[in-house]
Design brief:
Blueprint: H1 9-23, H2 25-28, H3 30-40, H4 45-66, H5 75-93, H6 99-124, H7 130-176, H8 188-198, H9 209-229, H10 232-239, H11 243-256, H12 259-267, H13 274-292, H14 298-306, H15 308-326, H16 331-377, H17 379-387
Helix pairs in contact: 1-6, 1-7, 3-4, 3-7, 4-6, 4-16, 5-6, 5-7, 6-16, 7-11, 7-12, 7-15, 9-13, 9-15, 9-16, 9-17, 12-15, 13-14, 13-15, 13-16, 15-16, 15-17
Length: 398
Amino acid sequence: MRNFLPESWGLVFSAAGAAYGVGLLGLWALPFLISAIMLDLQLNEAQAGLLMSAEFGFTMLASLVIAPFMGHAPRRTLTIFGIILAIFANIASANIENIYVLAAVRCFAGLGAGLALACGNASVSSAKNPNLVAAHMNILSVLLMIVVMLGYAKVMAQFGLSGLYYAMAATMAIMLLTTPMLAQKAPVAERHLLAKGTSKGKNNVLLSLPAVCMMLAMFVFQARDTMGWAFVERIGTTVGYSGEELGVLLSLQAFVGLLGPIIAAMIGKRFGMSMPVILAILLTGATSLSYVLGEYSTTLYTAGVMTICLTYFYALSYLTGLAAELDREGRVAAAAGSFLSLGLAVGPAISGGLISLGGFSLAAWGIGVTVVLTLLLVTPPLASVRRVPATSVPVAAL
């Protein structure tokens, strides 16, 4: 049990609150936001997707710009600023009807979320066991997703798009309460460790082959996920589920998803990193293919949907841990998180184009390609981690 628990619950709650409760809150709310934007603003699928892509694009931009400075940047201060910016942007969005003004304000919401995402992900590298912390963060993320699935659906039904933006602002305000537990800077011990013998290539770590491949792997991994996730409700309707039944199904799969990060935390590094990471990528790919091809079988669709969170958070725990292992200052983890946002932004656009050209079958082929690409891209990071033995140098207290 002692090996299963993280060394700092403060680190887990603050990092999860920043990275997932703010940085990726838009991902959990994506199906509801898309529907509400189309209904309230009278936009089509392409226009609604473009509005969300602008927001997620700025999330990626903010987290990528700040990533190289994560070793010395004031993480707690940046996180607080980012969350407050995102809160005010969401409150303002709830009172805007002009689509162009709304798009501009959503970009500010993305900037704030990106700062929180970068600082939260970088903090994972401060742990003695980043994989364990990442797994516990994802447990909290699944719990948040359950709340979003149950609560945001009711908010959208009663108050529409403006209600969703207010709900997001309230959620972020709660996450703001966890920021005092976030470390202001990378622990002194790990900075000294890195300075000792790695100063030559220290500033170029983000340009190394393992780091570049890790960032691209996160991008392709998330693009694969959102390629199907954005249309999961539409496919369910095609299969024959009603809107109410789909709401129940999505809530149930979020509960099942708790097992993913729990399994990752329990397994840890008992089987190394390579086998769990490869297995995670294959499982997430199989899940996406199952529900995207679910138009041919209700059973296949249901099985795929029920394992979305289970496989996704299991995989994300290991991929986040792998990124953290590459650079103990958190720069790679922060940059990888920004590419996660980029995948979130372009995934729906890619699958939307494929679906319009050849239906869900063509989209399934696209998902298959992303699975193969992700496997190829994680090879250099895994090889790099195997070459560097784990250090036993303790890190300073948070």
